């Protein structure tokens, strides 16, 4: 069976980086005026040469998003189920070598958390865990999905990558969306950031979106952790991966995220800093390259920045997030995976969205319409 790896193996990180940095004004202008943008055009849009075109890119991104998605922003919230993890990841507060108290929520605790989330108005929840297969496994996920399915119209998951059969098994339990971020496509440095645990298997992670497509999962989210490597090259690989997936699994929906490394207990400093202006450039470049893809922004980003980008191409946003298991009700003081930046509650975010002439939507799509 073919996978993205077949294409990935033919690429050279070094050559791609050089070709992005070699793009000129002419390449950018050509990309902006093209009817349909190629991956070469995407390189031009994320290149340093595109920086002076940011206003034009922002206008274009705004118009394309409006045309495809209307004036709505979807709201979602993470529910951290567990901070147990057998992996060492250099950038994460839940890393195995970080001596913190570990916790996996029980059924009763999950329902306590759900009660608070429902009170906030949410109908779309993102389940998050570390990777601890001894306690947090497919049977645990099935139990959680059964428990919470009556309370949400859309359930997303950001957990360890699973086998094809596992995704096939979970789908009937109400699993709608799976997020799996490659973190970085720089294979050598990926190994440095993931020295221990199943996550150190670069290829298994790289091929996870293929397994999701084969399992017929409704939507998948991909992306990298910005700050680990050159953001331009990593974002190019993300766009290339998306391009491949859309052609291979055309019935699946896609979303992209662009998290920047945030402080956490015992934390890693970003190797590469990305400015706010550069993040705006990337958001606009993704939208101009791909009119269909959903673009998601979490509470990692600041209040000011999130206010600013609402109209530039973003289609979903989280608010009131807690990044620790039990953070909403059971154990609010436990260790967070990372510090959030925008601390406004969901109704404040909803109000901010309204003030910009948009509407906050509290669910993604209605499961009952498709089952
Ligand atoms: S990023 Fe995920 S896999 Fe890595 S240490 Fe954190 S929770 Fe575990």
Number of strands: 9
**Mean model confidence by pLDDT:** 93
Number of helices: 15
Give the strand content: 5-15%
Bound molecules: iron/sulfur cluster
Strand order of the largest sheet: 1-2-3-4-5-6-7-8
CATH topology category name: TIM Barrel
> What is the count of structural domains?
1
Run of helices and strands: HHHHHEHEHEHEHHHEHEHEHEHE
Explain what the structure shows.
The chain has helices at residues 4-8, 13-21, 25-33, 39-46, 54-69, 107-120, 138-148, 164-170, 187-193, 202-206, 208-215, 231-248, 276-289, 303-309, 346-355; strands at 72-80, 124-128, 154-158, 177-179, 219-223, 253-257, 294-297, 316-318, 359-361. The chain contains 15 helices and nine strands. It is globular and about 60 Å long. With 371 residues, the protein is of the alpha/beta class. Helix content is 40%, strand content 11%. The model is unreliable at 366-371 (pLDDT under 50). The chain has a single domain, classed as TIM Barrel, CATH 3.20.20. Helix 3 (25-33) crosses helix 4. An eight-stranded parallel beta barrel has the order 1-2-3-4-5-6-7-8, surrounded by five helices. Iron/sulfur cluster is lined by residues 85, 87, 89, 92, 94-95, 130-131, 199.
List strands and helices in order, with pairings.
Blueprint: H1 4-8, H2 13-21, H3 25-33, H4 39-46, H5 54-69, E1 72-80, H6 107-120, E2 124-128, H7 138-148, E3 154-158, H8 164-170, E4 177-179, H9 187-193, H10 202-206, H11 208-215, E5 219-223, H12 231-248, E6 253-257, H13 276-289, E7 294-297, H14 303-309, E8 316-318, H15 346-355, E9 359-361
Parallel strand pairs: 1-2, 1-8, 1-9, 2-3, 3-4, 4-5, 5-6, 6-7, 7-8
Helix pairs in contact: 3-4, 4-12, 4-13, 5-13, 6-7, 8-11
Bound molecules: iron/sulfur cluster.
Iron/sulfur cluster (SF4) is lined by residues 85, 87, 89, 92, 94-95, 130-131, 199.
């Amino acid at each position: 069976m073919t996978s993205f790896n077949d294409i990935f193996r033919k690429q050279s990180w070094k050559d791609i980086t050089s070709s992005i940095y070699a793009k000129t004004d002419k390449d950018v202008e050509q990309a902006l005026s093209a009817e349909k943008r190629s991956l070469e055009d995407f390189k031009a849009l994320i290149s340093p040469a595109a920086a002076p075109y940011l206003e034009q890119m922002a206008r274009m991104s705004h118009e394309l998003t409006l045309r495809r998605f209307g004036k709505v922003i979807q709201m979602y919230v993470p529910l951290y189920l567990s901070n147990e993890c057998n992996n060492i990841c250099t950038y994460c507060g839940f890393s195995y070598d970080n001596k913190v108290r570990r916790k996996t929520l029980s059924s009763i605790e999950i329902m306590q958390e759900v009660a608070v989330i429902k009170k906030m108005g949410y109908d779309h929840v993102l389940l998050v865990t570390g990777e601890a297969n001894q306690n947090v496994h497919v049977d645990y996920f099935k139990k959680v999905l059964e428990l919470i399915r009556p309370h949400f119209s859309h359930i997303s998951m950001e957990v360890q990558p699973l086998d094809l059969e596992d995704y096939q098994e979970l789908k009937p339990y109400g699993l709608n969306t799976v997020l799996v971020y490659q973190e970085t496509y720089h294979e050598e440095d990926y190994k440095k950031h993931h020295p221990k645990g199943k996550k150190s298997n670069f290829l298994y992670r790289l091929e996870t979106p293929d397994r999701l497509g084969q399992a017929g999962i409704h939507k998948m989210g991909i992306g990298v952790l910005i700050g680990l490597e050159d953001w331009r090259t990593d974002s190019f690989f993300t766009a290339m991966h998306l391009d491949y997936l859309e052609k291979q699994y055309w019935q699946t929906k896609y979303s992209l995220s662009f998290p920047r490394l945030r402080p956490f207990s015992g934390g890693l400093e970003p190797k590469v800093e990305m400015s706010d202006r550069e993040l705006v450039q990337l958001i606009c470049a993704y939208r101009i390259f791909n009119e269909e893809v959903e673009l998601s922004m979490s509470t990692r980003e600041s209040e000011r920045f999130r206010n600013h980008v609402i109209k530039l191409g973003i289609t979903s946003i989280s608010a009131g997030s807690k990044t620790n298991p039990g953070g909403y009700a059971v154990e609010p003081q436990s260790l967070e995976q990372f510090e959030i930046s925008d601390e406004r509650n969901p109704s404040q975010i909803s109000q901010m969205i309204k003030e910009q002439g948009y509407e906050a939507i509290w669910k993604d799509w209605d499961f009952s319409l498709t089952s």
